[in-house]
Amino acid sequence: MNQRRTLLSLSILLLACGALLIATVSSQNSNPASEHRGPSWRSPVASTQSFHIAGSVVQVDFAPGALDLPTPQIMQWVENAASSVATYYGRFPVPRDRVLIMPTEDRRGVMQGTSWGDVGGSPAFTRIRLGQHTTADALTDDWMMTHELVHGAFPSQEDEHHWIEEGIAVYVEPVARVQTGFLQSEKIWSDMVRDMPKGDPQPGDQGLDQTHTWGRTYWGGAQFCLLADVTIREQTHNKKGLQDALRAIVAAGGTIDQEWPIRKALLAGDAGTGTHILEQQYDHMASAPVTVDLDGLWKKLGIVRTETGVRFDDTAPDAAIRAAITATPSTGRIASSP
């Protein structure tokens, strides 16, 4: 059985602190849905909805429990995330996806997401814990649902390569939301300038395959993706990018329900761009700590820090690359249907 687990930063911090973990478990156990024992994909379901997108079907199940927001509003949240993923990849990555919404009593916000491949009869399965008192604004601002659905678009990896799975999801999620019109490009570049340094190697760290800290897994993986995207575009005169590589992996059958060696996935991605960037960068960063020159990247891309975020310098050498990364692809925005 192929399986991928996505543990978000909050979950990792909770696991690192025993007292907080006990409090979280206690809170979850007050929710009837959490009383179920066994795999998440066998949890009780109170109601089911579904929608189509790019020829695929997304089934949205609701576990028992109360939510303040009406079901159509929650469905729109899932559909927007699916639209972002389909727009970025030019298709929805798997023919059938299942999302389980688990209400959490007396809590607010999108709390935690986990994704698996090839379980319970579904090629992809995502469990999302949603606070009972979550607001509409919180769903509008949420990144987690899109992050989890992106995981469906890459083959499951061994633990030492978990950084490539998480790095892709961290990097692609905001880019896809800009391409679909749900975010502004200034916002995501400002966030990247702020957050990308979290992936820098720390004293004693090794390569991405050997260092499994939160920062190196999520943001070190995102640095790998950013650097690959810019380098591919530089080598192809901005005709191809990481988006083309990731689309090629999906087209070759590399989705979450498949277990591929990492080099097989990178080879498929490189074939989609006519370069060897992914393989070469992996050889460079997998076994040795590499500090990416982020300041140099921002300067080339024309991203200038300001007191309130960033501004764009369209005279910078790679300003056109920056614009191309977040531009709606030629395949257009892909929306859901009933």
Order of neighbouring strands in the sheet with most strands: 4-5-3-2-1-8
Distance N to C terminus: 31 Å
Q: How many strands, what sense, and barrel or not for the largest sheet?
A: 6 strands, mixed
Radius of gyration from CA coordinates: 19 Å
**What share of the residues lie within helices?**
40-55%
Annotation, overall tally of beta strands: 8
Taken from the alpha-carbon principal axes, the silhouette is: globular
How many domains make up the coordinates?
Answer: 2
- Mean pLDDT over the residues: 91
Number of helices: 13
- Structural class comes to alpha/beta
In sequence order, what are the helices and strands, one letter per element?
HHEEHEEEHHHHHHHHHEEHE
Structural notes for this entry:
With 338 residues, this protein is an alpha/beta fold. The chain has two domains: 145 residues, no CATH class; 145 residues, no CATH class. 44% of the residues lie in helices and 15% in strands. The strands form two sheets. The protein has a six-stranded mixed β-sheet with strand order 4-5-3-2-1-8. Helix 3 links the parallel strand 2 and strand 3. Helix 6 packs across helix 8 and helix 9 crosses helix 10. The two termini are 31 Å apart.
Characteristics of this structure?
338 residues, alpha/beta, 2 domains, 6-stranded mixed beta sheet, two-stranded antiparallel sheet, 13 helices, globular, disordered N terminus
